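Working notes for the structural subgroup meeting. M.R. asked for a predicted model of this chain before we commit to crystallization trials. I am recording the input and output together here so anyone reviewing the notebook later can reproduce the run.

Input as submitted:
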Amino acid sequence: MSAISRALQIKLPKAQSAFLWGPRKTGKTTFLRAAFPLGLSYDLLETDLFFELVKRPSLLRERLLAADPRRLEELIIIDEVRKVPQLLDEIHWLIENKGLRFVLCGSSARKLVRGKANLLGGRAWRCEMHLSSRRKWSAWSCSER
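Returned structure, recorded in token form:
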């Protein structure tokens, strides 16, 4: 992990959120949890959490508003956000009204784009993580698109 942590850095402005896309097994989740150990993390591969949020997306907002405010100063990680596109409306509201910051990650944005999901209209940068076969570590790129 030390080689990855030295090679990758996420530098977002204070009020900025981001989408982090990349192929499976490039280390997106591992990197984010190591880079933001104090931040809250929601993994939508956990079936109980997935079903709770599919049934009631507002539960994310309720949980975050009830969380310790100090933990909300860190980036909030939502892993596999493509599985529950309805969360993006809640995340949009939390960014606009509470100033929370998120990194929303997954392997592909195609499901979100096809489903005409709320892509946060410039409130989140698009970042990509790629596996470098030559060096055996991931590369990171980020843009304001």
